[in-house]
């Protein structure tokens, strides 16, 4: 890597490589990604010490650094990139959405996409609500499952501020999907919102034809609480 900041990170990860952990971690992710074998608790501590020593890059360099991290084979680099991105969210501008889309659509899997959807895109849209309609319209019209999943999940932490008309629109558009990750996202979004408005979710499940997985996931919390 042609960057001192990233070279220091590479050295840190290499020094803490654990091949015994790397094999099952890769297997858990269906052999899609390589790993150093650094489990989350240790990685979080290493990242904390790294940030304390090296600080954060300049905002102007962030996009290039994130893309370089994203292009590395070991998944810990992508996890670090997400932590870095989250810590620098306050300095973001409207153009950052193009970078987020790049990250969502490259090396896509639930572990990165869900974090980006909820903790990055969700926060971005709160900061720039005028970007919600143009971006989600484009993403929903795409054939990219992960962008569509992002449309469903970005409001997951919005609670009473959830735009129900928008959420219902997305669910209706995707309700006939056979994609596991789409149907799971629909159920997850409704399950989470059921903690805010149980009646709405119960009624929606009755009025929209959902996949069995979506319906089951939507009502899971309510059934457990016997509401």
Folded structure, characterized:
The protein is an all-alpha fold. Helices cover 70% and strands 0% of the residues. Helix 11 runs antiparallel to helix 12 (198-207) and helix 11 (180-194) packs parallel to helix 13. It is globular. The protein starts with a helix and ends with a helix. The mean pLDDT is 96.
List descriptors.
227 residues; single chain
Question: How would you summarize the topology of this molecule?
Answer:
Elements: H1 4-15, H2 19-28, H3 40-54, H4 59-70, H5 75-87, H6 96-105, H7 110-127, H8 132-141, H9 145-153, H10 164-174, H11 180-194, H12 198-207, H13 212-225
Helix pairs in contact: 4-5, 5-7, 6-7, 7-9, 8-9, 9-11, 11-12, 11-13, 12-13
Helix content: over 70%
**How large, in whole angstroms, is the Cα Rg?**
19 Å
**Backbone structural class:** mainly alpha
The parts where pLDDT drops under 50 for at least 5 residues are: none
Name the shape in a single word: globular
SS strand fraction: under 5%
SS element count, helices: 13
Report on the biggest sheet.
none
Measure the end-to-end span.
54 Å
Whole-number average pLDDT? 96
* Series of H and E elements: HHHHHHHHHHHHH
**DSSP strand tally:** 0
């Amino acid at each position: 890597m042609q960057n001192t900041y990233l070279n220091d990170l590479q050295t840190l990860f290499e020094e803490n490589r654990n091949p015994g952990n790397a094999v099952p971690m890769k297997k858990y992710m269906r052999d899609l990604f390589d790993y150093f074998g650094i489990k989350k608790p240790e990685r979080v501590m290493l990242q904390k010490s790294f940030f304390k020593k090296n600080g954060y890059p300049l905002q102007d360099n962030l996009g290039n650094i994130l893309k370089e991290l994203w292009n590395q084979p070991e998944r810990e680099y992508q996890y670090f990139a997400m932590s870095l991105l989250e810590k620098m969210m306050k300095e973001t501008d409207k153009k950052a959405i193009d970078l987020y889309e790049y990250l969502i659509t490259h090396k896509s899997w639930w572990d990165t996409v869900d974090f980006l959807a909820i903790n990055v895109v969700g926060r971005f849209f709160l900061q720039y609500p005028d970007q919600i309609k143009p971006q989600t319209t484009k993403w929903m019209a795409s054939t990219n499952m992960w962008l569509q999943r992002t449309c469903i999940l970005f409001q997951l932490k919005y609670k009473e501020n959830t735009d129900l008309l928008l959420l219902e629109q997305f669910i209706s558009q995707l309700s006939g999907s056979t994609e596991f990750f789409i149907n799971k996202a629909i159920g997850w979004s409704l399950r989470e919102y059921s903690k805010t408005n149980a009646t709405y979710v119960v009624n929606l499940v009755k009025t929209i034809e959902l996949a069995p997985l979506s319906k089951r996931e939507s009502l899971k919390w309510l059934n457990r609480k016997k509401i």
